[in-house]
Amino acid sequence: MTVAEELGAFFEALLFIAERPLTTGEMAQLAGVPPVQAEGALATLAEDLADDGRGLRLQRHDDAWQLVTAPEVGARLAAYAAREEARLSPAALEALAVVAYRQPCTRGDVDRVRGVDSDYVIRSLLHRRLIAEIGRRDTPGRPALFATTFTFLERFGLTSLDDLPALSSDAAAATAAATLTDAAAEPADEHPSDAG
């Protein structure tokens, strides 16, 4: 086994046992190699997993990496996944789409696009780890900012956010209209309730 193959095997095993995505820098430090060498080994590993038709893929989100199941085996894994987690409601899918396309965004941003209160569905998406709080907006009240997670990418068979389909013209217009209202202060619970 060459040095490059050993490094790739180490990264594959490391990502398999890791409980969270790991950055290139973390893996380089653990392997005792420069980040540039780690980046090359990770890219080679990603290609090898895809080219060999294996059941795993290497997924990158910003500078973090993790092993995920291959989309090609998704249909066969669906029965197992269905047992593990209930389906998302239409309201939850709608809110998740808003977060995915507008991230980072606040609950108020989601409310404005959907036209209803999204508190319950946001909590549901957080609980399912499809979105995560990534910070606070620097506006009055400092509302939480949300973005999608690796779990979102994995569940929807995406390798990165670049794989999201393009918005339809109607959806793009609704998002643009909501963006224009983002400068206004968030109203305090004036939205209709959503059973989501």
* Poorly predicted residue ranges: 183-196
Provide the spatial order of strands within the biggest beta sheet: 1-3-2
Total count of domains: 2
The whole-number mean of residue pLDDT values reads 84
Radius of gyration: 19 Å
Largest sheet: 3 strands, antiparallel
Order of helices and strands: HEHHEEHHHHEEHH
Molecular shape: globular
* DSSP, total strands: 5
Write out the CATH superfamily name of the largest domain: Winged helix-like DNA-binding domain superfamily/Winged helix DNA-binding domain
What is the structural class?
Answer: alpha+beta
CATH class of the largest domain: Mainly Alpha
CATH topology call of the largest domain: Arc Repressor Mutant, subunit A
Identify the CATH architecture of the largest domain: Orthogonal Bundle
Measure the end-to-end span.
53 Å
Q: What is the helix tally?
A: 9
- The helical percent reads 40-55%
Beta fraction: 5-15%
Per-chain topology:
Elements (H helix, E strand, L loop, with lengths): L2 H15 L4 E2 H8 L3 H17 L4 E6 L2 E6 L4 H11 L5 H13 L4 H8 L4 H9 L3 E6 L7 E5 L1 H6 L13 H12 L16
Antiparallel strand pairs: 1-3, 2-3, 4-5
Helix pairs in contact: 1-3, 2-3, 5-6, 5-7
Structure commentary:
Helices cover 51% and strands 13% of the residues. With 196 residues, the protein is of the alpha+beta class. It has 2 domains: 3-73, Arc Repressor Mutant, subunit A (Orthogonal Bundle); 85-180, Winged helix-like DNA-binding domain superfamily/Winged helix DNA-binding domain (Arc Repressor Mutant, subunit A), CATH 1.10.10. The strands form 2 sheets. It has a 3-stranded antiparallel sheet. Strands 4-5 form a two-stranded antiparallel ribbon. The chain is globular, with a radius of gyration of 19 Å.
